[in-house]
Write a structure and sequence with these properties.
alpha/beta; Arginase, Chain A; two-stranded antiparallel ribbon; 9 helices; globular
Length: 288
């Protein structure tokens, strides 16, 4: 058991934490949604995603593989309600604990701000970290209604750490965010229409990334007809098959962490929770 965590549930097929295998993956939940600006409920995401994980078989018919990757579920982080910066600090400390055990983090959110703490820990460990950011929104605002630590500023804080960004599925942004992207050289954008029409080019780009990779998936990247229970649903999103293709392109790269965030539902069996659980299960099936 890590410090600052408790165990409300376990992700399906996770192993016991008594005998940890190095270079494996460890799940932590971040039940936090204090900066949510539209649809609240992401704080319950870790619970409903874990519950939904039990609806899947260990054998994955899409990829013709069994889930054999060892991974562990360490429970949820003890967040500080209403204090995003402090919560990000706790996430950072918890991820550092995992890294000391030579275990790579998988984070279930919770609002997207959880990524700040995780990526800060990883950016200090790895040089030339690339963040693959799947989202409907850029999340590059300098501040949001005066707050620098927010679900809407996540990738601005992350980019300030010196990482490279690849943003996929973007279909909503402010003029200021677009100008910020134009002012820098290390933010690559593939908008939703690029995914729908030019997936081959995106695959080629992803498989040629060198160095460590962190994948951050906001569930609103998926079309709301498929995954409606998110903080900020936006039409025109990605489809499940497109997410599968992207994950398959990245599976054999040096992926040092993953988060799947912004599942906002209090209902067990919610469609969005099922899709989020599938993404995590697909990732764990693909990596070796």
């Amino acid at each position: 058991m890590l410090l600052n965590t408790y165990e409300p549930w376990k992700f399906a097929f996770s192993q016991e934490t008594e005998n940890l295998k190095e270079n494996s993956y460890g799940i932590i939940g971040v039940p936090f949604d204090s900066t949510t600006s539209y649809h609240s409920g992401a704080r319950l995401g870790p619970i409903v995603v874990r519950e939904a994980s039990f609806g899947f078989e260990k054998y994955n018919t899409i990829f013709n593989k069994d889930l054999t990757t060892p991974f562990y579920d360490f429970g949820d982080v003890n967040v500080v309600p209403g204090n995003c910066k402090e919560t990000c600090g706790i996430v950072e400390d918890t991820v550092n604990e995992l890294l000391e055990l030579n275990i790579k983090p998988i984070i279930i959110g919770g609002e997207h701000s959880a990524s700040i703490g995780a990526i800060r820990a990883l950016s200090e460990k790895y040089d030339k970290l690339t963040v693959i950011h799947l989202d409907a929104h850029r999340d590059l605002a300098f501040d949001f209604v005066g707050e620098k630590y927010s679900h809407a500023t996540v990738m601005r804080r992350v980019h300030e750490m010196g990482v490279s960004l690849v943003q996929i599925g973007i279909r909503s942004a402010s003029i200021d965010e677009e100008e910020y992207v134009k002012s820098t050289y290390d933010i690559q954008t593939f908008k939703n229409i690029d995914v729908h029409k030019h997936m081959d080019a995106i695959e080629y780009y992803l498989i040629n990334i060198d160095g460590p990779i962190y994948i951050s998936i906001d569930m609103d990247v998926i079309d709301p007809s498929i995954a409606p229970s998110v903080g900020n649903p936006t039409p025109g999103g990605l489809f499940i098959s497109e997410i599968e293709t992207i994950m398959e392109s990245l599976a054999h790269k040096n992926v040092v962490g993953l988060d799947v965030v912004e599942t906002a539902s209090n209902r067990l069996g919610d469609n969005t929770a099922v899709v989020a659980a599938k993404i995590i299960r697909d990732f764990l099936t693909l990596v070796e």
